[in-house]
Amino acid sequence: MPAASAKASTTRKTASRTAGRKTAAGNKTAGKTLVVVESPAKAKTIEKYLGSKYTVKASMGHLRDLPRSQFGIDVDKDFEPKYINIRGKGDIIKDLKKAADNADKVYLASDPDREGEAIAWHLAHILGINPADNCRIVFNEITKPAIQAAVKAPHPIEMERVDAQQARRLLDRIVGYQLSPLLWRKVKKGLSAGRVQSVTVKLIVDREKEIESFVSKEYWSVDLRLRREKSPLFTAALISAEGKRLDEKRDDGWVPAIPDEKTAMKIKAELEKNADKLKVEEIKRNTVLRKAAPPFNTSSLQQDAARKLGFTSRKTMMIAQQLYEGIRIGSGHAGLITYMRTDSTRLSAVALNAVRDYIGGKFGGDFLPEKPNFYSTGKNAQDAHEAIRPTDVNNTPENIEKYLSVDQFKLYRLIWQRFVACQMTPAVYDRLAVNISAGKKYLCRAAGSVRTFPGFMAVYAGIEDKREKDVKLPELKEGDRLTLHEVKPEQHFTEPPPRYNEASLVHLLEKLGIGRPSTYAPTIETVIARGYVVREEKHFRPTELGVLVVNMLEEYFRSIVDVKFTADMEAKLDNIAEGKLHRNDLLKEFYGPFHATIEKADEAIGHVTIEPEKTDVICELCGRNMVIRQGRFGKFLACPGFPECRNTKPIIVSTGCRCPKCGGDVLEKKSHRGRLFYGCSNYPRCGFTTWDKPLKEPCPKCGGLQLQYRYKNGRAVAYCYNPDCESRKDNPVNKELDRVAQRMKKLAAGESAKPPAKKTAGKKTKK
Known about the structure:
20 helices, seven-stranded antiparallel β-sheet, four-stranded antiparallel β-sheet, globular, alpha+beta
């Protein structure tokens, strides 16, 4: 219903209950106030800050929603939604009503976004509160000053934001409850389609088509190892061969300047022939400033946590919620970060003053810019909240590490470092480019870079420093003659675009304006749960089912999977929140053409079946040839006689390696969560298992089994399984393996307070 009628309806329905509460208030202690938040953790933290005159209770999220068993939208009555109390929330509603009747005031303190505004509106209906009254309080961080300031400035519920949330909810219901049943009838039960999830699957499918159609091209590069007199050797890359730039881009496609080995060897011979003509032609020196990245918003936090910590978007948001709502520190609770659903990179004046004081005291004046650093926010961003930052910069990661789980600490440190770094001076680099001629035909270039001032990088000391190394060149001057030590041609092949991972997919969705940052995590989890996409080695690959559904939607429902259409819809939802567009106008514009297309497609599309791939494996229960099916965690063998025969088996994939304990085959296996590990074919008689990938190449020292350990930053190293092997002596991987073994030992003994999810952080562990 429109905003005005919603206010009137709620007022009429609840006036008597409100009056009753006011009458009862005369028999109670004056000033008793009820504050309703969304989660118990948040309630516990806030109650400590407000004192004995306040009661804080949790609604546990939404209490009302559209019914699951029916469409729930009266299209003929201006798209009026039919809201009902959510099943299982009866006791919570009863408790909240009782608390509201015993309070003089009720403040609705759900999250400070559109979803939170809608929750507050539903709470107002349930508790008999007029949405136009000053019943709504919001805060961007759960700290004592922020909470106390919020209760002093209550305001009415913002109905435009409620309407924007309802428009999104109703659009999703229209698509889901009319398009999904069509997929059930035409493909198979359990499928779903949605405005955002269908576009997401299409993006993944399109990338897979790019990969499949990619034709690799051979090309060569040539490096020269040079020195000036007795100076150390340095490397120069050939950048121009016979007048052709090696990095030249052409309108008719990329044509490599050195296309094959024959050409490379010819160039090598000529360079060696011109060895006495190598001369420094030009030296360019410049100073480069590297500025810090902006403070985190929701999207950039998800991307950085995926890249640096290996977290899924869902895991990132779950841990951020814990840090926002409050962590037990000593005898109390404290919210450690500001609200984690935000598009903004803006920082409050209070936060800027605090972090500038910290930087000046900790690092000194050279690291503090004269004025605060400000960062622009994207054109589609909702700037209602600050960036994600620590609530108190003095809560350094080292000071509070003992109160946090391993993953909470990692994410908090990421947020804290980014916040402090964004208000520091740039890092300074001296860059050197040396052009070297080799006769008239060839030009080479050597590049050096040395960091002369760390600037904001000082915050990341010991972390980023390992990833960034200075490249030093010897002292050179124009006209210097150089000695050729070696010419190194190297073969390369162009590679197809990579599959999307968590970070790159989130970045693309944000860039295209698909969904909101708060929807990325549930969208990704949904498309995986539906079997449209699988996550393999942290990258997304579409399944056969995902390709089929996208192709069908592209043929009959092009707008549903059209990037521009979906992005425009997001912009219109923003317009509703800003009062520039009426909710019903958007719904009418969408519903008419969409419903007509549904009816046409239902007649045109025949039943589509996906024939599973048959195998030679015989079902031992009924004798049929088993088939390959796709599950949430990948492919598996299943009996085609389902549901009469429900036999399933994992697909056995041999690594080609021998078990170091008994000589059996080492097989690929999957945990109950779908994580790949490796184990002996003679299990359970032989208990060899490992998270680390077995390598076919034997250990060069002892000939034993080699495994590949992968660090969190993605770097992989090979090591011998035999701890007594000479190659393991003083090997850095020993510390990593010992650390994992100790953690798993504690978990097995029940000594660790870390959540069970931490078990998956191990590497070489028994399954």
